[in-house]
Amino acid sequence: MTNVIDTGDRVTKWIRWIARIWSSPIIVYSLMMFIGYAWNWVTTGTADPHAVEGYPLVEALPPILMFLSVLGLGIAWRWERLGGAISLIFLLATLLLLLIQRPITQDFSRSAIPYLMSLVIAIPGILFLVCWWRSRRLPTY
After folding, report:
1. What angle is formed at CA 58 by the lines to CA 56 and CA 59, rounded to 5 degrees?
2. CB-based contacts of 18: which residues, under 8 Å, 6+ apart?
3. pLDDT in tens, the chain (141 residues)
4. pLDDT at 4
5. Which of 108-121 are b and which e, b meaning 16 or more Cβ less than 10 Å from the residue's Cβ?
6. Whether pTM exceeds 0.85
7. What are the distances in angstroms from CA 81 to CA 21, 40, 45, 85?
C-alpha cells in the first residue's frame, strides 16, 4: 500500500523537475545573449553596434525586465519561493509596460511575440511557486 505522503512528495518532485527542465533552456539562452552583449561591449565599447542613437529607455525596459525574470528562474533552482516570486513580479511589470507601450490589438502579428515570450517564462515561475507551496504543506511525521 502506497503512503499518501510519498505520493504527494513524488508529485512535488515531478513538478520541480518539470520547472527545472523547462527553465534550463531559457536560462542558457539568456546567458548566451548576456555574454554576447557583454563581450561586444568589452571589445568594441558598445553593447549593440546597430543600436539607434537617442533610443528611449522605455523601449529597453521590457528586455531588461525579462532578463531579471529569467534571473529569478535561476534563483528558483535553489530557493523556489524567492525565485518564482521574482520571476513573476518582473513578468507582471513587463506585461504592464508592454500593455501601456504597445497595446496587443495594434499590429497583432508583431506585438504578440513579447506576450508569448512572457508566457513561456511565466510557466516555470508558476511551477516553482506551486512546488514550494506543495512542499510547505506536506505534514511531517
Report:
1. 75
2. 124, 127
3. 444 445 568 888 999 999 999 999 999 999 999 998 888 888 887 777 777 777 777 878 888 899 999 999 999 999 999 999 999 999 999 989 888 887 777 677 777 788 888 889 999 999 999 999 988 765 555
4. 45
5. eeebeebeebbeeb
6. no
7. 17, 34, 38, 6
Q: What one-letter code names the amino acid at 29?
A: Y
The answer to whether the beta carbons of residues 125 and 91 sit under 8 Å apart is: yes
Cell numbers that stand for 36 in this block: 554576447
SS3 55: coil
Distance of CA 4 to the CA centre of its chain: 32
Q: Round to whole Å and give the CA distance between 4 and 7.
A: 5
Cell matching residue 65: 525586465
Single-letter amino acid, residue 116: L
Q: Which residues, other chains included, contact 91 with Cβ-Cβ below 8 Å and sequence gap of 6+?
A: 65, 66, 69, 118, 121, 122, 125
DSSP string covering 83-140:
HHHHHHHHHHHHHHHHHHHS-TTTTHHHHHHHHHHHHHHHHHHHHHHHHHHHHHH---
pLDDT of 99? 84
